Protein: Beta-glucuronidase
Amino acid sequence: MLKPRPTPTREQSSLNGLWSFCIDSRAGEQPWNAPLPGPLEAAVPASFNDQFIDPAIRDHVGWVYYQREVQVPRGWVGDRVLLRFDAVTHEAVVYADGERVGAHVGGYTPFDVDLTEHVTPGRTFRLTVAVNNQLTNETIPPGTVHETENGVRKQKYLHDFYNYAGIPRSVYLHSIPTSHVDDVTVTTRRQGTTGLVDYRVETTGSGRVTVALRDEDGAEVASLEGDHGTLGVPEARLWQPGAAYLYELDVQLHQEGRVVDHYTVPIGIRTVEVRGNEFLINGEPFYFKGFGKHEDSAVRGKGHDDAYLVHDTQLLEWINANSFRTSHYPYAEEVLEYADRHGIVVIDETAAVGLNLGVEGGLAGRPTTPSFSAETFNDATQAAYAQHVRELIARDKNHPSVVMWCLANEPASNEEGAREFFAPIVDLARELDPTRPLTYAVVMFANVGNDRIVDLFDVISLNRYYGWYVFSGDLDSAETYLRRDISSWVDAYDKPVMMTEYGADTQPGAHSIWDAPWTEEYQSALLAMHHRVFDEFPQFVGEQIWNFADFQTSNGIHRVEGNKKGIFTRDRKPKAAAHELRRRWRAFGDRKPTASA
Structure:
């Protein structure tokens, strides 16, 4: 799916700002047929939960309504008029002047609604968006909803971050020509110093397709006619970690001697490959240094914010990180575009978090019911999962910063039924994108002896909490078990191994001269212990700490003001471990460190 952008043949109008807002119990019958009642307004883009002080809104489970008047530019006569939502969490139904015009399920991928037959250029219409935040066993991510004795709906979910909802990303009205470019797919490779750009263009309407590739100075370096082909770039400048270089692919659709549509795609020429136990970018071994992150900030919730994007990536640069994982859902596309421009390596993760009822059994991993069954995660769940994977890869396939797809976080890969559930998803991902490696984050109670799906993937990514949930306060024992755990995977598989989660909750300002959990000293010591072990294994290809910054979670006595495993606080102040980590990551580049590093 092409992201809307202004071109000589396309225009867009931002609908970000303040919208009228109401929850379902106060909205009346069919609220899309009239102005919403009440004075409330909500900011877009932002989650709605923390914008209001009313707990009935923050904790609301069900439908809410957003509404505003929209002016259609008068110059769009003869064009298709589309409405683009970069994300609506988790389900949306869209109405124009009371008429249902579109719907979408899935909270982290974009969708378009074609309004051409429902609106008139030069006039206004009333736009109403119904948003449902409920998660079930057949959604991605999953959850359950129950009612209390007082008739209040309560949402339960199996992931450890707050279920922020609403319209967290941008909304646009945009125009496209009747005959237009529908999609562009680009993959890159190399022959010696020549870069090869394979492209495929899909169009609506007949016409002649031309493509031209331009360098960062605007000079044309290659061109072709046709809806598919290969562009050769002699002495190509490569997109490198920490040293991004982007070309621009200029795509035009011609009819009767004139250009009827024009679209451009930024292109980074680079290769990604897993060879034995190495992860290679441009044929060179790469070592991941970075974090699992969250789209999370005070008041905005999961609302995208360009200021946080800039500041967070500045902190990544300060600490000498080179990568992050979009845990546990696809991030806003602006994040990937920024990573493209600045050479940040991204592991792009689906929203398949919580596909594991074993978490209800604690660290023993004994589920009260099977994770995979007709009553739990079933064929309908798998179908929703497959659709999410299609939408994610369709959106992010052309980003050079994305070097690997992470298809799930901590699934029940040790349970019966896991292979039948995940194998078709793996096959689908490889069919949609055969160029990028695949991984998933392995839950702590899945091990070499009981994991049923690891052989389907290219990289073994471990989430492990030795020294925190296991052997808390006993780093000597934690180190022994961590070393044994990594050794087991290294001995069993000729694959790269990395750590995608490790860390300890840390209260800023808590200190101790002993190994006292929650102190800043303990967080530093726990990370140092992990790093000693990592450096012993040549097969180890990366360390991504949980988490970049503290983040909000659901209410619970073990989560006081959220998850505190951040190296930075929620407002991005460094804890003591940040300075230790900065020194470690500065000592080596993008190559594997050794025990002496």
Observations:
- The CA atoms of residues 310 and 338 lie 9 Å apart.
- Residues 180-270 form a domain with the Immunoglobulin-like fold (CATH 2.60.40.10).
